[in-house]
């Protein structure tokens, strides 16, 4: 007799026994109150500029990372209702009428943060809490800087200059295992110790902060991959070239400069068996 | 340094040091065993044969010096020298770097080659600098002894220099794998070119052979700097020399595998990463400290960029 097609064997269940029809009882998650915890363990820092479409969702997911959580939104240069929406979601809002500039909100947020773990996000796309928790967990387990493992698009032979810069910086830092992970990308989490070593000001210049962190005894790890490339909104470009891209490459060179200052002009790499003195 | 001259053009330069025989013979047999039988002829297929005898095709105004650095390449050296002599160079300089096999005897079989024998290994790329110092030609073609490249594939490099290019590089961009699979050396080369504002060069670098230099370029760079090829590349571009990609020779497929250049994070990779760090150090130290933007200007620029990107 031809056996009946069933998934029983794969599930190690006798074919005669009926499949369980009732769903497993799901523990109802306690409703997360839309307020900041008075003694937070995790501070979530979200710079936002005209993000009224996404900010509520970002804050809601951010609250799910830990039971003791505070959300700090740095609203800058916004002409829309980003600030109102953030405060109605119970976030602490720090407002600036003028734009602070690329990544500058991170320093402001870090100054204001009270938690032991600092989680950095962007206001322009929603990442589910389940994908944010690994970053907090990694810091909890001893990492000082928990980075996103996403390296950017790497399928073409000729990479995007920013992707190349991140890979090359890690290579020169002696950390090729980090591939293209960098503090430039969100989400990433910092320990309180990392913040103390780096200082909040440096966080506005992520490649420099990244190089500074790797050249000290801070534990830098790529912990979890969130494909932020697909989530990034398409931004304006000037005649095919992006001025921000040039700025980011420049920032990476600055980071290389810091590295060479700290580890010498060969970045700590040896000269092999090269005998320079015989060429005169 | 002793110089014995046998013929007018045939020189043997010997640098004092430990003799080759003092080395462990074990190393020599290991080196021989590592060689794959597939490459025993050591010669990639020649695709274009017709017309290669017509030397008129490769006529030049300037004189050519070919500099070959070799390390235990007894099998490939003589066929390579044969191909090189088809280019009708003024001189061929073979720098034997710590050879413990028959390379010296093989090189001596060539009537034209000037041989520089370094009994102790001088390390990576030092041979190029020594060869460049002793050369006299208007055009310098740099090769490695481990690979026989047919003369028609070599010819574009000196030809480009003859037509006014200062640094003629091997264009390996079409041979690259997807970036996620590329090795550390490839990434370093690309980043250095990007930092020099020559992202268009991709992976092309003076680290790879064959490449050719004009005498003007050599004088501008300084022959000593050739022992750190990425630094020499940085100096060429910073010095405003004409750096171009002129041909493609697949040196990836035919590269000889040695104990030190296989696997990730191998010794050669580490050395080359260090070389690129040195080159970037040169790039960054040349920047005028006065050109550093003050903090306020820096942030104003970022502010403007944020506004612009936000579409306001």
Automatic annotation (TrEMBL), chain A:
Stored Pfam families: Glycos_transf_2
GO cellular component: plasma membrane
Keywords: Carotenoid biosynthesis, Cell membrane, Glycosyltransferase, Membrane, Transferase
UniProt main location, coarse: membrane
Region Disordered, residue ranges: 1-34
Glycosyltransferase recorded as keyword: yes
Subcellular location: Cell membrane
Biological process annotations from GO: carotenoid biosynthetic process
Superkingdom as given in the UniProt entry: Bacteria
Pathway(s) per entry: Carotenoid biosynthesis; staphyloxanthin biosynthesis; staphyloxanthin from farnesyl diphosphate: step 4/5
Glycosyltransferase 2-like domain segment(s): 43-147
InterPro entries recorded: Glyco_trans_2-like, Nucleotide-diphossugar_trans
Keyword Membrane annotated: yes
Any one Gene Ontology molecular-function term assigned to this protein's record: glycosyltransferase activity
Biased composition annotated in UniProt, kind: Basic residues: 1-23
Family: Belongs to the glycosyltransferase 2 family. CrtQ subfamily.
Described purpose of this protein according to its UniProt entry: Catalyzes the glycosylation of 4,4'-diaponeurosporenoate, i.e. the esterification of glucose at the C1'' position with the carboxyl group of 4,4'-diaponeurosporenic acid, to form glycosyl-4,4'-diaponeurosporenoate. This is a step in the biosynthesis of staphyloxanthin, an orange pigment present in most staphylococci strains.
Protein's recorded name: 4,4'-diaponeurosporenoate glycosyltransferase
The organism of origin for this protein: Paenibacillus agri
TrEMBL record, chain B:
Low complexity bias (residue ranges): 19-34
GO molecular function, one term: glycosyltransferase activity
Gene Ontology annotations of biological process type: carotenoid biosynthetic process
Superkingdom, taxonomy of origin: Bacteria
Biochemical pathway: Carotenoid biosynthesis; staphyloxanthin biosynthesis; staphyloxanthin from farnesyl diphosphate: step 4/5
Biased composition (Basic residues): 1-11, 35-57
Domain Glycosyltransferase 2-like: 65-168
Chief place where the protein resides: membrane
Compartments it resides in: Cell membrane
Keywords: Carotenoid biosynthesis, Cell membrane, Glycosyltransferase, Membrane, Transferase
InterPro entries given in the database record: Glyco_trans_2-like, Nucleotide-diphossugar_trans
Disordered: region residues: 1-58
GO CC aspect terms: plasma membrane
Family according to the record: Belongs to the glycosyltransferase 2 family. CrtQ subfamily.
Biological role: Catalyzes the glycosylation of 4,4'-diaponeurosporenoate, i.e. the esterification of glucose at the C1'' position with the carboxyl group of 4,4'-diaponeurosporenic acid, to form glycosyl-4,4'-diaponeurosporenoate. This is a step in the biosynthesis of staphyloxanthin, an orange pigment present in most staphylococci strains.
Name of the protein in its database record: 4,4'-diaponeurosporenoate glycosyltransferase
Organism whose genome encodes this protein: Paenibacillus agri
């Amino acid at each position: 007799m031809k056996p009946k097609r069933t998934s029983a064997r794969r599930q190690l269940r006798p074919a005669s026994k009926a499949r369980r029809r009732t769903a497993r009882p799901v523990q109802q998650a306690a409703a997360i109150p839309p307020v900041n915890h008075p003694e937070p363990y995790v501070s979530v820092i979200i710079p936002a500029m005209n993000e009224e479409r996404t900010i509520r969702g970002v804050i809601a997911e951010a609250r799910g990372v830990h039971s003791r959580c505070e959300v700090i939104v740095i609203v800058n240069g916004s002409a829309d209702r980003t600030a109102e929406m953030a405060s109605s979601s119970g976030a602490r809002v720090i407002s600036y009428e003028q734009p602070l500039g690329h990544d500058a909100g991170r320093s402001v947020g870090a100054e204001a943060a009270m938690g032991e773990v600092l989680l950095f996000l962007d206001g322009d796309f929603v990442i589910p809490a389940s994908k944010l928790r690994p970053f907090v967990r990694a810091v909890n387990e001893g990492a000082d800087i928990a980075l996103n493992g996403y390296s950017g698009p790497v399928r073409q032979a000729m990479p995007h200059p920013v992707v190349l810069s991140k890979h090359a910086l890690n290579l020169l830092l002696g950390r090729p295992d980090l591939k293209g992970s960098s503090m430039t990308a969100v989400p990433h989490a910092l320990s309180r110790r990392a913040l103390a070593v780096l200082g909040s000001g440096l966080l506005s210049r992520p490649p420099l902060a990244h190089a500074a962190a790797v050249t000290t005894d801070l534990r830098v790890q790529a912990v979890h991959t969130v494909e932020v490339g697909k989530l990034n909104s398409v931004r304006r470009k000037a005649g095919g070239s992006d001025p921000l891209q040039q700025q980011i490459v420049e920032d990476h060179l600055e980071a290389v400069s810091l590295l060479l200052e700290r580890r010498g002009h060969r970045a700590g790499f040896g000269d092999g068996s090269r005998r320079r003195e015989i060429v005169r | 340094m002793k110089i014995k001259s046998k013929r007018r053009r045939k020189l043997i330069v010997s640098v004092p040091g430990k003799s080759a025989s003092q080395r462990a013979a074990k190393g020599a047999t290991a080196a021989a065993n590592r060689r794959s039988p597939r490459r025993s002829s050591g010669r990639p297929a020649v695709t274009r044969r017709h017309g290669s005898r017509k030397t008129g095709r490769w006529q030049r105004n300037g004189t050519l010096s070919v500099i070959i650095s070799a390390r235990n390449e007894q099998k490939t050296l003589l066929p390579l020298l044969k191909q090189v002599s088809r280019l009708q160079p003024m001189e061929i300089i073979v720098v034997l770097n710590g050879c413990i096999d028959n390379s010296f005897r093989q090189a001596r079989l060539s009537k034209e080659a000037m041989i520089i024998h370094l009994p102790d290994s001088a390390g990576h790329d030092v041979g190029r600098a020594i060869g460049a110092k002793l050369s006299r030609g208007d055009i310098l073609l740099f090769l490695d002894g481990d690979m026989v490249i047919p003369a028609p594939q070599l010819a574009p490099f000196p030809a480009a220099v003859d037509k006014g290019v200062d640094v003629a590089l091997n264009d390996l961009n079409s041979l690259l794998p997807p970036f996620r699979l590329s090795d550390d050396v490839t990434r370093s080369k690309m980043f250095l070119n990007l930092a020099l504002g020559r992202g268009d060069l991709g992976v092309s670098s003076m680290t790879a052979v064959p490449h050719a230099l004009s005498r003007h370029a050599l004088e501008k760079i300084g022959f000593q700097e050739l022992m750190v090829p990425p630094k020499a590349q940085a100096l060429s571009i910073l010095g405003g020399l004409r750096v171009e990609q002129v041909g493609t020779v697949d040196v990836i497929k035919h590269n000889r595998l040695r104990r030190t250049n296989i696997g990730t994070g191998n010794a050669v990779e580490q050395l080359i990463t260090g070389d690129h760090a040195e080159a970037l150090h040169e790039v960054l130290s040349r920047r005028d400290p006065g050109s550093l933007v003050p903090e306020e200007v820096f942030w104003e620029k970022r502010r403007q960029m944020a506004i612009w990107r936000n579409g306001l």
